[in-house]
Design a protein that fits this description.
Elements lengths: L21 E5 L15 H6 L1 H7 L3 E4 L27 H13 L3 E6 L9 H9 L11 E2 L14 E3 L5 E3 L14 H16 L4 E4 L37 H14 L26 E4 L6 H4 L10 E2 L11 H18 L5 E2 L8 H4 L12 H4 L7 H17 L4 E4 L20 H5 L43 H5 L5 H14 L9 E2 L6 E6 L3 E6 L5 E2 L6 E4 L7 E2 L3 E5 L1
Parallel strand pairs: 1-2, 1-11, 2-3, 3-7, 7-8, 8-9, 10-11
Antiparallel strand pairs: 4-6, 5-6, 12-13, 13-14, 14-18, 15-17, 16-18
Helix pairs in contact: 11-14
The protein binds 1-deoxynojirimycin (NOJ).
């Protein structure tokens, strides 16, 4: 590891911009298609920046747009420092960053350090160089596989023609890097600097809990998954290895050594920051699922990662008690450590919340065959009501929040994609027992009444539903009651209200099935998860409601902001 490893970084500033930022996730292939080839691209994102500025987000996170054979939707990266021609050019990227900055929107990019693409030049060289070569040392080649399974299903090892096996914890097109090799460490340092030089405001780190594998690659002990899972004390030999903490400290130093004018955020007030041009520190946000807070705690010391995604609400059924348990656990952890856990209700890996909240809630956590195959009954109207209430909850919670593209339109999961049209490698790797993640990746509807809804000019890479005419941006823009206008109003209030953003909350006493908390000064959030209307908490004004109120009663599946 480089000299930048020794840790002396100060904890992040409590006023760092990301602590209360609302970040919008752009899945570039499905956002907007400017060149008419059926796939979204960077000029498409640029052409629709007005939508994001009107929405009022602080930053966008771009899922991978790097050259890739798309074995896993771009999370198989063949070149970390370029733009895939299907998405445009580096000049298009620069133009997007500049145009976004002009609208006060920062740009976060995705970094994929656990694995690359089988088309990455170093992997091709390793294959050609043969067993025992130094080139193979950059990856994990063995003469015999162990018993590890791919996260996508099936074995985590693939045999090459000379008889050796290589490790891929995801698709076979995604060979894992050997993070104990100095070339790998140095290469990713160059990658970070490359994008920092282009003005990015941070990095979303893909599967940030993996990267290092336990020495000797021991077999997974069957049934060991439920054990203690803190770094250095893990029962899965490919997760949470202690070296991760040092690695992220070294990345923090690189980020801090790259001061830059990343948009027009307020000046950095970090006491430790001496760089004259430092206006806005760059952020890291780690994709890391954690079940128990103790698993996350070591990463939250504040001298390495800036943020860990708070994913806990995504697999949570529509229940006041269960939502409160998850919120308490994350919020307590953030308070105790001084760290930052932005809230998440959707992303490109999970079924959309309209659909999650519109099914029998016993199914939300249970991987039953009907859930895996998307064959459960969905009440879209009910799911939409709940998703709107959940949006008000998301944006009222203390800290930052991530919004997945299309959630601001209340899009449901697209469940009716034909098997032949499915692209997610999980579909085939699970022998078609899991439909995969295509349903939340359908191209966005912008205007018009039939596909492609002005996503682009022609057929889209994944089909869109026929019944999205009322969900397009254009259709919703003029409808005061639309989900789009609910998000806009919420973000506008959030921007100005002194109680919202980072800070604390105080739970209020409520009947069962209702969540309510107060935030100072003068703000109350209430969500009715139950089946009966309940009286509104004491208030002067109703700032915003996710659905019609019944006088002074809050109807079921409705959220409200009060002052
Ligand atoms: C997490 C990403 O969000 C997901 O889309 C991807 O398939 C895996 N990591 C592997 O890179």
């Amino acid at each position: 590891m480089s000299a930048e490893t020794e840790s002396s970084a100060q904890p992040y500033d409590q006023g760092a911009w990301w602590r209360d930022a609302v970040v919008y996730q752009v899945y570039p292939r499905s956002f907007a298609d400017a060149n008419g080839d059926g796939e979204g691209d960077l000029p498409g994102v640029l052409s629709r920046l007005g939508h994001l500025a009107d929405l009022g987000v602080d930053a966008i996170w771009l899922s991978p747009f790097y050259p890739s054979p798309l074995a896993d939707g771009g999370y198989d990266v063949a070149d970390y420092c370029d733009v895939d021609p299907r998405y445009g050019t580096l000049a298009d990227f620069d133009a997007l960053v500049a145009a976004a900055a002009a609208k006060n929107i920062k740009v976060i990019v995705d970094i994929v350090p656990n694995h690359c693409s089988a088309e990455h030049p170093w992997f091709r060289t390793a294959l050609a160089a043969g067993p025992g070569s130094p080139e193979r040392e950059r990856f994990v080649f063995r003469d015999e596989p162990n018993n590890w399974q791919s996260v996508f299903g099936g074995p985590a090892w693939t045999r090459v023609p000379d008889g050796q096996w290589y490790l891929h914890l995801f698709d076979s097109g995604q060979p894992d890097w050997n993070w104990r090799h100095p070339d790998v460490v140095a290469m990713f340092e160059r990658v970070l600097r490359f994008w920092l030089d282009r003005g990015v405001a941070g990095f979303r780190i893909d599967v940030a809990n993996m990267l290092f594998k336990q020495d000797g690659l021991p077999d997974v002990v069957p049934g060991s998954q439920g054990g203690p899972l803190t770094p250095g004390h893990t029962s899965m030999p490919y997760e949470h290895q202690p070296e991760l903490l040092d690695l992220y400290r070294s990345w923090r130093k690189i980020l801090d050594s790259h001061p830059g004018d990343r948009g027009t955020a307020p000046a950095c007030t970090a006491p430790a920051c001496t760089a004259p041009a430092c206006t806005t520190p760059a952020c890291t946000v780690a994709e890391m699922w954690f079940g128990h807070p103790d698993q996350a705690r070591p990463y939250m010391t504040g001298d390495g990662l800036a943020q860990l995604f708070g994913f806990g609400l995504m697999p949570t059924p529509w229940s006041a008690e269960e939502f409160r348990t998850v919120i308490d656990a994350s919020h307590r952890l953030a308070r105790e450590t001084g760290g930052s856990i932005p809230w998440v209700l959707g992303n490109h890996d999970v079924p959309r919340m309209v659909t999650r909240f519109g099914v029998d809630q016993d199914l939300v956590r249970a991987p039953t065959p009907e859930v895996l195959l998307g064959r459960m009954d969905v009440d879209v109207e009910l799911g939409t009501r709940r998703a709107r209430a959940a949006a008000l909850l998301l944006l009222a919670l203390p800290g930052g929040a991530y919004i997945y593209q299309g959630d601001e339109l209340g899009l449901p999961e697209h469940l009716a994609i034909a098997d032949e049209a499915r692209q997610d490698p999980m579909f085939e790797r699970t022998l078609r027992t899991f439909i995969g993640r295509d349903g939340c990746r359908a191209p966005l509807p912008w205007s018009g009444t039939t596909p492609p809804y002005a996503f682009g000019a022609g057929d889209t890479w994944l089909p869109q539903p026929e019944d999205w005419a009322a969900l397009t941006v254009a259709a919703q823009r003029g409808d005061p009651g639309s989900t789009l206008n609910l998000y806009r109003a919420a973000l506008a209030i959030r921007r100005d209200h002194p109680a919202l953003g980072d800070g604390d909350l105080t739970w209020l006493d409520t009947p069962p099935g209702v969540l309510a908390f107060a935030r100072d000064p003068g703000f109350t959030l209430m969500v009715n998860f139950g089946a009966e209307p309940v009286p509104l908490a004491w208030h002067h004004d109703v700032l915003l409601a996710s659905g019609p109120l019944d006088g002074d009663l809050l109807p079921p599946d409705t959220g409200v902001w009060l002052s």
